[in-house]
Amino acid sequence: MLISESDVDEIAKLVHEIVNRRRGYANFFGYSGSDKETRKAEELDVGRELLLHLNTLGLEQYSNLSLLDDKEGNEPFPDLQAITQEQKHIGIEITELVNEEKVAQYAKAKNTNQSINPNDWHVYDKGELEFAINEIINKKNEKISRKPDHLQEIWLTIFTDEAFLKYRYVMEFKDTLELVENLFDEIYLVISYSPEVKDNAFPNGYPIIKLK
């Protein structure tokens, strides 16, 4: 199919818009902005990668991934639901682990046309990662009472594009992370594309670590 000059111009405008809307820091999953529709698309993408990984393990098959709606117009909790072969309904809350201070620094630099060091990533040690994860768990755990009655389990899935949080690095101390008490049935960490771990367990190259 031939592409006309007008099509090329339109594509160029779209790419320019996407680049301008990116926050510039740890934004692999946020490919086209931060509006509601984009967030929902991101949540579905993360959910699909999680279920793909779990299905490859062969322990249980999950399907019918869909967004949940809040009939009262509030932000739904959890974000997604999936159904097992036995018709068990699983609720999946999707959230992000990112250093907000670095995001603010990148935004300020962008708004003032300052240069940005692409290697200026936040450095996480075990203690700081543990703190960040537990902060997320505490925040989300407060919302569990809002879950729809038809859901039999609630999972928390945390995705991150923090450059320091590579799969092998996190796995070094994964078993010693002390999570705060919570009501989630399972908790997962989804790491952005890492071709070095692409295999049968992670078909698309997105490492997934079960934390609970």
Describe the structure concisely for a colleague:
The protein has 212 residues and is of the alpha/beta class.
Describe the protein's architecture and organization.
- The structure is a single chain.
- This protein has helices spanning 5-21, 36-57, 100-111, 126-141, 167-173; strands at residues 62-67, 80-84, 89-96, 153-160, 186-191, 208-210.
- With 212 residues, it is α/β, with parallel strands linked by helices.
- It has a six-stranded mixed β-sheet, with helices on both faces.
- The N and C termini lie far apart (49 Å).
- Residues 10-21 have low confidence and may be disordered.
Distance, first to last CA: 49 Å
Strand portion, in percent?
Answer: 15-25%
Shape: globular
Number of helices: 5
Q: What structural category characterises the helix and strand content?
A: alpha/beta
Biggest β-sheet: strands ordered side by side in the sheet:
1-2-3-4-5-6
Poorly predicted spans: 10-21
The helicity comes to 25-40%
Total beta strands: 6
On the 0-100 scale, what is the average pLDDT?
Answer: 83
> Order of SSEs, N→C?
HHEEEHHEHEE
How much is the radius of gyration in Å? 19 Å
User: Quick one: biggest sheet?
Assistant: 6 strands, mixed
